[in-house]
Specification:
The chain is an all-alpha fold.
């Protein structure tokens, strides 16, 4: 933290506000996609996917700012950010603002993670249903590569996504 505390705090708070806005918009787009998929409205789902694609562009510009800011943050011995040290350098009001902002970001990130998990499960069920319908139509046992006849163990689709999301 080479910059003066006031300058540093304003830069940090500005970044956290941008990140909160990005996560809020991402959460709204994911909710929109979930509603569109749940109701079977493909045109709406395409619109939601276009919005998510735009989010990727916003995330890449914030990534540069995040990396620049992270290089200046004090670290603990385990490599994590030393928020206690940052807050100690700030006034009580600024430290409280940083704590509140971090709490909102943590909550939003957990909300987005839950939405991604729901979408992954929905995608898995959709893929499984598609495979079973296609297998039934074609009289095949494993047309999609994901379908397992009753009583036989198979490889379920989407498992790696769900495991990745935790």
């Amino acid at each position: 933290m080479r910059a003066a505390p006031v300058e540093y705090v304003s830069e940090l708070l500005h970044y956290l506000e941008q990140e909160e806005a990005r996560l809020t918009e991402l959460s709204e787009e994911l909710a929109h996609l979930h509603r569109a998929l749940a109701s079977g409205q493909i045109a709406l789902a395409n619109g939601a996917l276009a919005g998510l694609w735009q989010q990727l562009g916003a995330a890449s510009s914030l990534q540069k700012q995040r990396q620049r800011l992270q290089a200046r943050l004090p670290r603990r011995s385990d490599g994590g950010v030393d928020w206690a040290r940052i807050e100690a350098l700030l006034g009580a009001e600024s430290a409280e603002a940083v704590r509140r902002q971090r709490a909102r970001l943590r909550s939003l990130a957990q909300q987005v993670r839950g939405q991604l998990h729901r979408l992954a499960v929905m995608a898995w069920f959709g893929q499984e249903l598609y495979g079973r319908i296609l297998a039934a139509i074609l009289g095949d046992r494993a047309t999609s590569g994901r379908y397992s006849p009753p009583g036989q163990e198979g490889e379920p689709g989407g498992t790696h996504i769900i495991e990745m999301l935790g």
